[in-house]
Fold this sequence. Notes:
The structure holds two protein chains of two kinds. Chain A is mainly alpha-helical. Chain A has seven helices and no strands. Chain B is an all-alpha fold. Chain B contains 13 helices and no strands. Chain B is 81% helix and 0% strand. Chain B folds into two domains: 161 residues, UbiA prenyltransferase (Tetracycline Repressor, domain 2); 125 residues, UbiA prenyltransferase (Four Helix Bundle (Hemerythrin (Met), subunit A), Up-down Bundle). Chains A and B meet through helix 1 and helix 2 of A and helix 12 and helix 13 of B.
Amino acid sequence: MTPLDRVLLLVTGLLAAYQVVVGIDGFSTLPMVAYTIAFGVLLVAGLLLIILGFDVLDSPIVVIASTIIPLALSLGMVWQHLPSLRGAYLVFVLLGFLAVVVTRTIPLCSPLPTVVLALIHGVAGVIIFLLPLLLVQQGAMKPAFALVSAGGALIGIAGLLLSFLKTGRPILAQKTILRILPGLLSVTTACFVAGFRFG
Amino acid sequence: MNALAAKLRLYWPLIKSLQTGLLVATGLAGYMSARCPLFNLPTMVGLFFSLVAAISGSTILNMWWDRDIDARMRRTRCRPLAAGRIGPDEALWVGLVLSLLGVGLAAVLDPLYGLIIFAGLFFDVVVYTIWLKRRTCWSIVWGGVSGGMPILAGRALGLGRVDAIGILLALGILFWIPTHILTFSMRYFDDYQAAGVPTFPATYGFSFTRATIAISSILAALAIGFAAWSIGMSWGCLRLLGVLSSGLLLLAVAVTVRPSERTSFGLFKYASVYMLSAMLIVVIGVL
Lengths: 199, 287
């Protein structure tokens, strides 16, 4: 890991810490908890990458941790902006997370773990990407809120790159993925923080 | 001038700059947690120099006494005292002068503050290093007690008395220190065995040691968290502390459930980052 990688991961951690401390003040309880979890995972992940290096990505817990971020972010957004879907989406998030944990903990010789992961990431990713754009288009939020969509797209790319890398069928060479990952994480976090701050 | 610079370079590893820096940071955070006027420059300067002098002095005295152990351990045999690059008499004098300077300056600032700093030095040098370190693996408790003194002293200086929050903060450091020392005692197990120093892994085994690390990390997070809440920190800062504490707890569980050298070392490093961050949050949180 290069010094620049460490700086970028530190920036990621600091931005996530800022969001946890001041970026979500004034929100109602559940979104506050959900965003704290999402940005908290980003912060701790950034610190662990700095401390342990990219080897930490070999851990099986990475898949579970990388599921928490989109699930928690999308839950916060649904709770804030789609009140009629609150209950249903909360159930989806809880069951989805449980399904990911179970299918990643118990060894299964079937495509089920991949299907579960794709479904959970897919739904959460679509919400994070499309909901801010729709809200901006409807005039419910300021244009800067679209940056959350950009963050959603970027973290989706990061998730895809890492997932395929872990399944042994990488989209890009491992070296390339590790080279762009710190930058991708810091830009993603910056987009989220700016989107919530100015949107 | 060059001779002085060379001497300072020799003494630098003797004061364990990172550990000393972290303990000084806890003392400053303890002081600021009392919501003192932040720009009380003379007190802040006095606090800083008394802590640096007392902690550096006790660390040098610790290395002076343990130079025979250090010489037998691969990890420490290159330390200036163990390698013979600094004479033991000279190191003893420097350690004593620094310690006296630190305690004296602390006593001038405030007698209670001076007393707590002296207690920290006494527990570290006399109780931990000289009396117990070669006799029992439980000596680390006293190492932890002395490590908790700077933050307790800093808060006592700010308040003029010892209070429950100060004790909680000190407990946070006390429980954090086993994470640090026990990880080292597992990582350098053979070294400690060769030197004949009783350690937790040698006495109770690795599983018990890992469980102790996990439990002490959890207790450290609880003590710091409860102290932060009692101080009246903002919700935002409490949230951030909660997030960092969760990371510490998860790593502690990982070390127990899926033990590996990498995870243990990760917890060791993370615990240091956690403590420094917690101190920063305490300072920011009371602003």
